[in-house]
Amino acid sequence: MNRSELIAALAERAEVTRKDADAVLAAFAETVGDIVAKGDEKVTIPGFLTFERTHRAARTARNPQTGQPIEIPAGFSVKVSAGTKLKEAAKGK
Questions:
Q1: First and final CA of the chain: distance in angstroms?
Q2: 63: left (phi over 0), alpha (psi -120 to 50) or beta
Q3: CB-based contact 42:50 (threshold 8 Å)
Q4: Residue 57: CA count within 13 A, CB half-sphere
Q5: Are 62 and 70 a contacting pair, CB within 8 Å?
Q6: What is 52-87 written as a DSSP string?
Q7: What Rg value do the Cα atoms of the chain yield, rounded?
Q8: What does pTM read for this prediction?
Q9: List of residues 6+ apart from 3 with CB closer than 8 A
Q10: Contacts of 89 (CB under 8 A, 6+ apart)
Q11: What is the pLDDT of residues 67-91, one digit of tens each?
Q12: Contact 92, 71 (CB under 8 A)
């Protein structure tokens, strides 16, 4: 399902216009992005998803073309965890 299909499904289920559904989805994505960027808290939608910023330590990797070791600096990443309701849906229950 792509973004336009998701917006259409949301609009139909919530009985709102596609424009309104698109605005809500965009606002949701922007809000989650802002909170994750700050890194001081996580976003939890109970039973569905949790988004949180994690720290990745510096590490040594290997260039796949040359085989030479390269240093990857420390940085941040995003961890997304599925909630229980989403896990049950994936199982088909």
A1: 21
A2: beta
A3: yes
A4: 2
A5: yes
A6: EEEEE--EEEE-TTT--EEEE--EEEEEEEE-HHHH
A7: 18
A8: 0.77
A9: 25
A10: none
A11: 999 999 999 999 999 999 999 999 9
A12: no
